[in-house]
Amino acid sequence: MTNQMRKNRGLGELDSYLENFSGLIKNKLKYQKKVKILDAGCGYGLAMTGLLKKFGNRIEVIGYNKNKQHGTIKDLKRMSIKRGLFTKEDIKKIKNFPKIIYLNAEKKLPFRKESFDFIYCLHSVYLYKDKIEFFKEVNRILKKDGIARISFFEVTMLKNKKEVFDNLRKSNRNHFLEIWNETKQINIIDYFNNIKGIEIKFGKRKSKDHAIIYLEIKKQPKLNFNLKFVNSVNMGLIAPDKYGIRDIYSLNSTPKVL
After folding, report:
1. Residue of 154, 190, 195 lying closest to 170 (CA atoms)
2. What span, in angstroms and rounded, lies between the C-alpha atoms of 19 and 83?
3. Contact yes or no for 29/58 (Cβ under 8 A)
4. Tally of domains in the chain
5. What contacts 162, CB < 8 A, 6 or more positions away?
């Protein structure tokens, strides 16, 4: 997937890759007047305006990028008009039009605890150093009963979900995160699925041959991964066909199954 395609991702990609994410919002709005949403690494922000088109003034949505090269409000307005989501006149009248801020997601996120009902992250976390710390930050800023979904990595599609997960367990193939217990590599799917509030899930097919694995976080008083950050490797410096940041962690101690 090219950078341009990543920046252009909209509501269709959000609901496909993160398994009907807008359905979570719809259900929440049945008993709550308004929800607050964070797009972590929003690019041009078309998923945000897609949600705005769908839910109107019942949502407040904020996105962040690392810098203006990744997408601006000007880009968001231009692309939303180009996609036919809103007209220029519509945008002038919308009081809750999405905001884009700029930050370094590898540091503490500049939001108060329990700020958001929902957080989503599409094709962004692979660029972060120390992803575990980012997951903890996401949990911190989620409201009670809040949910976050984060696209984790892409997989080659086999016959069914079970076969894909079984293949991943055998191979430990994941470009972006490794867990080690001394000299033994730990399978991240089984490890994460034993942490309360965390679940690795299977999104809809990205194409006939590929699908998205995503991580779901349900708000917890505290997320305990029991991991120590060791180092990060920029995969793009190793080979031209590689990309993203691979984080390496070691177990702090023998983990408890939660």
Report:
1. 190
2. 22
3. yes
4. 1
5. none
Dig out the tokens for 258 from the structure. 């939660």
Among residues 134, 83, 142, 88, the alpha carbon closest in space to that of 112 is found at: 142
- Tell which residue, 163, 111, 172, has the closest CA to residue 138: 111
Residue 127 lies in domain: 3-157+197-223
Q: Could you tell me if residue 94 is inside a domain? A: yes
Kindly provide the residue ranges of all beta strands, DSSP E only, lying in the chain, ordered along the sequence: 35-40, 59-65, 99-102, 116-121, 142-156, 177-181, 184-186, 198-205, 210-218, 227-234, 245-251
Answer yes or no: are the C-beta atoms of 62 and 38 closer than 8 Å: yes
pLDDT, tens digit only, all 258 positions of the chain? 444 335 567 899 999 889 999 999 999 999 999 999 999 999 999 999 999 999 999 999 999 999 999 999 999 999 999 999 999 999 999 999 999 999 999 999 999 999 999 999 998 999 999 999 999 999 999 999 999 999 987 765 555 666 666 666 655 555 689 999 999 988 888 899 999 999 988 876 655 666 788 999 999 999 999 999 999 999 889 888 888 899 999 998 754 444
Whether residue 235 is contained in a domain is answered as no
Assigned domain for 150 exists:
yes
Q: Cα torsion at 70, 67, 10, 116 (round to 10°)?
A: 170
Of 78, 200, 63, 221, the C-alpha closest to 136 is 221
